[in-house]
User: Fold these one by one.
Assistant:
Number 1:
Amino acid sequence: MAEQKQEAEINLNKLSFEEALNRLDETVQALESGGLSLSEATSLFEEGMKLARYSSEMLASAELRITRIQTAYGEQMRMLEEQPDDIEEGGC
């Protein structure tokens, strides 16, 4: 059983953000539709929580990456904007 759980987590890590969100949506719909046994509902709830955490982590990672890119390009742009002033001052 531990191997199955580990395998499920590995499969979760192979999902794209969009796939994880779609799967989470399907899980929520299944829970909301009712008609599930307590065991099925509990398993689906657990899977949904894992999907939500995984999606949240992927989103946070993307946001951090975007912030780093903006910072790096912002510094480059600032340096480029400062260069013409330096050239003008040196040429006068």
Note: The CA atoms of residues 10 and 30 lie 23 Å apart.
Number 2:
Amino acid sequence: MGQHPLWHVCGAALFIFLAVIHRRTRSSGVFVVVLWNLTGVVLHELAHLLVGVVFRARPAGMSLVPHRDGNGWCLGSVSFRRITAVNAVPVALAPLGLAALACWFARHWFSWFKPSFPDTLALYGSVFILLYNALPSCRDLRVAFNWRSILLYSPLLAALAWYFTWPRVH
């Protein structure tokens, strides 16, 4: 028994529905925002933590307790004792790995679960959670794009761009 195309149409509709709800919860009270985002915040912060361990940034603490941050709320954070020009970019942009995980789920989901309508909806729900929490926060971007990291990584990016765009003679 294969997958029915209508299941994927329903899955896409679920993804859009969840995106609309996500957008609407932003103007809700903090309790609703925290409950709605809890799973994604945990995944986002775990991504920072795991990459921080791998890149020896020496994690100092992790908080999933929401607190006021300027005009908004900070739903979670991970602090590090050793952010350097080398590890700032991978640690700060670690949540982007959730997008890669979403692609991996989409590719392999039906080798783990039987093709069925509920499992198809579970796939789209999982992909939604991963993709919506893969975006780095403004604070993440400030950490990643500090002047030392820019000086370090710019020549590497320029070399990669040159390598992949330079015309090749066959």
Note: The chain is about 65% helix and 10% strand.
Number 3:
Amino acid sequence: MGSRSRARARAQVSDAASQAAPRRPLTVSGTAPQRPPTVAAAAVVQAAEVAGVLVATVLAGIDAGTGRSYQASSGVALTIIGVGTVAALGLVAAGIARARRWSRTPALLTQLFTGIVGVYLVQGHRYAWGVPALALAVAGFVLLLVPPSIRALTASGPAPPGESAP
């Protein structure tokens, strides 16, 4: 085997090794880094929002089934959309709980939409739903945007003071 062939083989092995690298980098001790408590709390907030959407979906389904919705077809559509939303938000909550990078943007968008809905509910004097929605949205934003969460949920978050970024 010539030197070019050996170099090409080494490059291919190196490329294959970099593609098969573990998802989470290892620490000095050889274990995966711990998930920050802020990420765990953000997952709890996301799960609480999923529970709220689930309750609203069940109520919309009951209203559609009993004929109390504005129109039967819109009640059924809202219920179907709610079920899909619960499934999608549940996946996002699971992604946040596992500190998956892909889950940060959908979780932030969830907080934005929860805040918008919370403002709408408060303006409509639905305080029992609006105030908790606003509280969850604010808590979710804060928990997702603090430095430990950013480091855990982004490819290259800001380095702590005194450390250089790789």
Note: Residues 37-66 form the longest helix (30 residues).
